[in-house]
Amino acid sequence: MDKFTRKTSFEQWFSPISSTKLEELVEAYQLNYYTKKLHIASFLKLFVFAQLNETESLRAVSETLFSDDLQQATDLESISFSQLGRRLNQVPTDVFQQVFLDLVAQIHEKTHFEKRREVTTPLKIIDSSTLPLNLNHHKWAEFRKTKSGIKFHLRLVFLEKGCSYPDKAVLTNAKEHDRGQLEVLVDDKECMYVFDRGYLDYERFDRMTDDGYFFVSRLRKNAVIRVLEPFERPEDSNVLSDEMILIGTTQNRAENTFRLIKVLDSKGNELHLITNRFDLSADEIAELYKSRWAIELFF
């Protein structure tokens, strides 16, 4: 990162973290008790800096303190990677969650989320990424013979002009299937949800539809379907087909009818999109699914 020159760019990144909220957390969890050096504010500033610089290890984080400007910003002259590791183990994960939720509430307020949902349907995008871990140190998270891992499920609120921000995150063992998290991440009937085929689950699609939740996802090309009714398409549409369908076999099928839209992506690959929205045009549904790339860029 460039040298700090303004009300430093680093300070601007850290400023949304409420000092009042931080003080409440420090008191509630006794975070600074018996701490002589690495107080929680300095600790968080150091890790915000490390995240912005994509620093890959605690040793590398400790070495960043050779910068005089960072020493001044964090009120630390030096810290060892072992001290950072011990401190990281001491801070409950709930502290980070509370800081995150407070930041989300601030973004909701500044983007007028509640007012926008009165006139439009907010779009929320769901996806996951697997984070590999060392098997020797994280046997509780084993998911292959040679490695451990956790899965990070993220939900983004998608705004106009391509802007987006995360508003919910869930961590699971990498062994757990994505689809099990839909019930946690789909919780607002006033929103439209977009997710990839890793979350495909006919039974949950039925429950979501019955409960009034709307979604668009991607259907596997070998999925068993029965076409009930084809819909007309405008002549200038990029959509290949638009149909009302039933999905699944006799042993594993959905009770509700859904909509299957076939489109070509930018590389010429055919995508099969499934949705329970029948009030939008096929092109509008395709555009909604295209917004899913925002979460790919976020990861």
What does this protein look like?
This protein is of the alpha+beta class and 299 residues long. The chain has helices at residues 9-14, 19-29, 40-52, 58-63, 68-74, 81-90, 93-110, 113-119, 182-185, 202-211, 282-290, 293-298; strands at 123-133, 148-158, 164-173, 192-195, 214-218, 225-230, 239-247, 258-264, 270-275. The chain is elongated and about 70 Å long.
How are the secondary structure elements laid out?
Blueprint: H1 9-14, H2 19-29, H3 40-52, H4 58-63, H5 68-74, H6 81-90, H7 93-110, H8 113-119, E1 123-133, E2 148-158, E3 164-173, H9 182-185, E4 192-195, H10 202-211, E5 214-218, E6 225-230, E7 239-247, E8 258-264, E9 270-275, H11 282-290, H12 293-298
Parallel strand pairs: 1-4, 4-5
Antiparallel strand pairs: 1-2, 2-3, 5-9, 6-7, 7-8, 8-9
Helix pairs in contact: 2-7
Summarize the structure.
With 299 residues, the chain is α+β, with helices and mostly antiparallel strands. Helices cover 36% and strands 23% of the residues.
Helical content class: 25-40%
Strand-residue proportion = 15-25%
Question: What general form does the structure show?
Answer: elongated
What is the CA-based Rg, rounded?
23 Å
Structure classification: alpha+beta
Straight-line distance between termini: 20 Å
H-E order: HHHHHHHHEEEHEHEEEEEHH
Number of strand segments: 9
Strand line-up of the largest beta sheet:
3-2-1-4-5-9-8-7-6
- Describe the main β-sheet briefly: 9 strands, mixed
Number of helices: 12
> Which ranges are low-confidence, i.e. pLDDT below 50, for 5 or more consecutive residues?
none
Task: Give the integer mean of the pLDDT values.
Answer: 90
